[in-house]
Amino acid sequence: MIAKTFAAILVASGLTLAAVPASSPAFAQEDSSLSPKQAEDVRKIVREYLMGHPEVLGEALEALREKMRLQAESEARKMVDARKDDLLKNADDPVAGNVKGDVAIVEFFDYNCGFCKQAYDAMFEAVKADGKVRVVFKEYPILGPDSVTAARVALVAKANGKYDELHRAFMKFRGRLDEKAIFRIAGEVGLNVEQVRKDMTGPEVDRQLKKNLDLAHSLDIGGTPTFIIGDRLVASALDQPTFRQLIDLARRGPAPKG
Q1: Rounded to the nearest 5°, which phi and psi values hold at 157?
Q2: Helix (H, G, I), strand (E, B) or coil at 236
Q3: How far apart are CA 130 and CA 120, in angstroms?
Q4: By percentage, how much of the chain surpasses pLDDT 90?
Q5: 146-163 pLDDT, tens per residue?
Q6: What is the dihedral of CA 7, 10, 16, 22, to 10 degrees?
Q7: In this structure, which topology does domain 81-252 adopt according to CATH?
């Protein structure tokens, strides 16, 4: 009876000890009341059960994945809540949409990220359709030197009241946004390119990019695009219906704790 009970516990807990030799310390620590022979019997029972019911492994793995997903979401919500002011109240961040909106979308992005460009229209269609959403842009250039140059130029554009036009032009550009294309587009939206070249290496731009980088790292953001909508962090290109669904969920309040 002891052996069967222990085997059932192993199966229910993900079978992590099914392949552990009875003589190992990890196995012995699980139930020190078992004799060596009983421990070996348990091991055999578990093995025989698995051989006869291999589907249990799939069920256990699926349960483990779901548990890990819920844990990751819970941790992400905690991190987002802890950095809420940095996400939403940095006056240096470019902002679009309804600046007084009751819901915010915070986007970490890179101008050379194809998935960021893919999500651009979907996000703004959802924002326009809703009418009460504020968009906060976090320049997060992680795809090479050209991306850093583009982010620097964009922050200079923000200081000169040209961020919206430049951001749109960069996002609509197809192909690699290299230095030649960056400064050509900057000139096309009305920026003084020579002045931009001087201002883009200034301390304010350095400070803003470092702040975004530190914030992204604190939230364990490793890729683009990453969106924060309400207390949910989503690292993926989203379509319009998904944006609208997440906006509605954010408006209802924090996600249930898992």
Answers
A1: -60, -40
A2: coil
A3: 16
A4: 65
A5: 999 999 999 999 999 999
A6: -40
A7: Glutaredoxin (3.40.30)
